[in-house]
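Internal tracking record. Fields below are filled automatically when a chain is submitted to the structure queue. Please do not edit lines marked as system-generated. If the sequence contains nonstandard residues, flag them in the REMARKS field before resubmitting.
Queue: standard
Priority: normal
Entity type: single polypeptide chain
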Amino acid sequence: MSAKALCRGLFALGAIPGILAALDSSFFKLFEIIEKDVVIVGGGAVGSHAAIRLKEDYGKSVLLVEKEAILGGHVDTYYDKGTNTPRDYGVQVYFPYQDGMDFINRFNLTLEQGLAPRGETTTKYVDFKTGKELSGFVPPDFGVQVGAIVQMYNVLTSKGYDKMVEPGFWNLPAGDKIPEDLLMPIGDFCKKYNVSEALPRMYESTGGGPASRDRNFTNVMTLTFLQSFSPGWMRVFFGEIAFYHIQGGNQQLYDRIQTRLGKDVMTSSVVLASERTDTGVNLIVSGLKGTKIVKAKKLLLAVPPTRENLIPFDLNAEEAAIFAKPTYGRYGTAVVKHASLPKGVELRNMPTSAVQNPYAPFLDLPHILSFSSYGNDTDLFSIGTSGNPYLLYGETASVATAQDSINKMAAAGTIPASKSKIEVVEYSDHGPGGYAVTAADLRAGWMSKFYGLQGKRSTWFSSNAIAIDFSTQLWKFNDEVLKRMIEQW
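SYSTEM-GENERATED OUTPUT FOLLOWS
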């Protein structure tokens, strides 16, 4: 049985309040008991980083629990079976932020500047709703867009907003002291500071993920948007700093972390139930290697604190009230094949209205952003997809959206017709998009209340849903979480 099947079949167990407290000692004798200083749930960028730092830098014993078979979360590399060529389809690049890149250097990996190489492609702009290639569409001027991003960066840094959001929200003013600029929709923010020309480039870079919550990209709260397009990332766009990929595939970093952690990792495993107190935590963890009882002094939840992810974690009334507030959509990436998709071509989804206004290329949900060929020498394409609501827009719905887009392009004669169905070579669920609360909730102190949970009931939180969503910035946010955890010890 896979970990995902276990999750579907048994996660409801975690919804039973006080399940651990109700079990007598004879129950625990049925399972192996693992005792650690820290148990980490989630083996993505945050959890993997935390496991290494706690074990190697702080001398703590750890157990890392991950539902997938490998570590890495959004970092996904597919190795072409014909050529063994690495195809990154999750996290594409790393960029310097403070000393964040030093973490990669621990693992004797080779960094190369720029994106991982892929074959040459030409771009066609197609409205996936109609299936028709756009006639007369002229993309926005690149220089104008970059100039607007520079101007926006200058606004953010001159007002000190970068210090409030990077790498996390520790320095965000409390409640009604949060600047109104950060609470207004990103479309309004850009109009106010005359930087609306930045929107197309920023939208493309974020993959539309933040908009999966609001359904309209320009309505995304500026504070939420900056998690996916941070001031630090803006510096890459106007050439102040470079970006890099790992030679041979970005997944290599997490493969080496998994090897180094060895038996301190439980992959293909999920938490079924928990008991969290001020003196430690107990978890029931089940996976391919059986069911274990994990006892630890601290718990680090390195997964987005969605209501779905928190089912097994015996929330108290304070926590339940806080986590009832956020809303979010869902986004993902995949490597796919289809007989109708032309090699060496990127089919980019563009609304017909963009012919008249190329600075508003925003798509309705659900959508596929593009079918991007890896080159003329392969039939592989990468896709990015966003949809709503969270529970309904998983892999099945994403694939259906992709197939529908292909069908419409074929019917319009944009691509050849074929009776074949889309083949998903690999799919990666990137989880919640646009995880956020309303401006009113933020003014009422939601963020302060959430960050105030850190350390309570021996539990700490760290993930891209509550910090900046770039690896090096997440790692620096994580450093602060771990520092505070150790200080509490």
